[in-house]
Design a protein that fits this description.
Structural class: alpha/beta
Distance between the termini: 22 Å
Largest sheet: 7 strands, mixed
Oligomer: single chain
Number of domains: 2
Helix content: 25-40%
CATH superfamily of the largest domain: Type I PLP-dependent aspartate aminotransferase-like (Major domain)
Shape: globular
Length: 366
Amino acid sequence: MMSIKYIDLSLQTKKIAPELSNIFKEVISSGQFVGGKYINKFERNMSKFLGVKYCVALNSGTDALTFAMHSLGIKRGDEVITPPNSFVASTAAIIHLGAKPIFVDVLEDQNLDFSKIEKSLTKKTKAIMPVHLTGRPCEMKEIMKIAKKYNLKVIEDSAQSIGTRYNQKKVGTIGDVGCFSAHPLKNLNALGDAGYLATNNRKIYEKIKDLSNHGMTKRNTIYRFGHVSRMDSLQASILGFKLKNLNSVILQRRKNYEIYRNNLNRKHIFFPEEKKYQYNTYHTFVIQVKNRNKLKKFLEAKKIETSIHYPVPIHLQPAAKFLGYKIGDFPIAENQSKKILTLPIHQDLRQIDILRICKEVNSFYN
């Protein structure tokens, strides 16, 4: 019995090895490894893909979040609304700026519960950071209403959701700034760490462009001291090539989801239905089940790899102890953390593989 991998990056890379080889040769022979034409081309093409005026190529999605908040004036003592069930980088970026994350519980689809935001606002609240988790869009219409009412900035953590749409608009383009990761596990993935952000605000774009490159507006002119967060030319060229095939990758993941949808026993297995105004890109496919740990071990014995995103909510991590949260503060997120299991959904899965996964999951509960 062959094993089914949660994700197979070696297979992904092997399929495009000739193209990657040509990219390596071109970039190396150009001698242009930092900045220049490859970065400019990627930023133009990503701006076009997202439908925004500006894109900045960076070294990670985490830096994208940090620069976005900094450019919007988030500073020490400010508060930022965000969910407690994201990857830790969302909260870490807030804390590194000296601001305070104010967690708000989530909906059944694991995304921020907009109905609970207003109760958490204070005079110190300056922004909302919705996280489009698993490739599923947050309820941005309601979130933007609240932001407008209270004059709050909106930083979209779209690290897991490149190409995801909400009311026909791509996430990361609805708030003030959209932040993306191109980590190897993402749908649009580099061969290492990389990230980028999107905005329609020229001032934000110019500020972040400078800050990410030592603060150099020109080679010998520095108006503000910056950092080093540049995407390198090789990653930009690789991502530019992969961007051409991104829609096909997303479509295949959506097809894989439909196989799951039609074959998993919904009596024992919960996952939210996609709404008419949503377009999910399925960075991950997360089910919610009883006896999650036993199911995971059962599937492991059947040579089926799974994952958990994420077993411990951020507010219960040791690093977050100083924030003063406790067990029971966010019951929905905490309850979900005990039930969530991520099944393979990557574009290289065969239909027979997904049917086998469904059969084994169903058999566990039957």
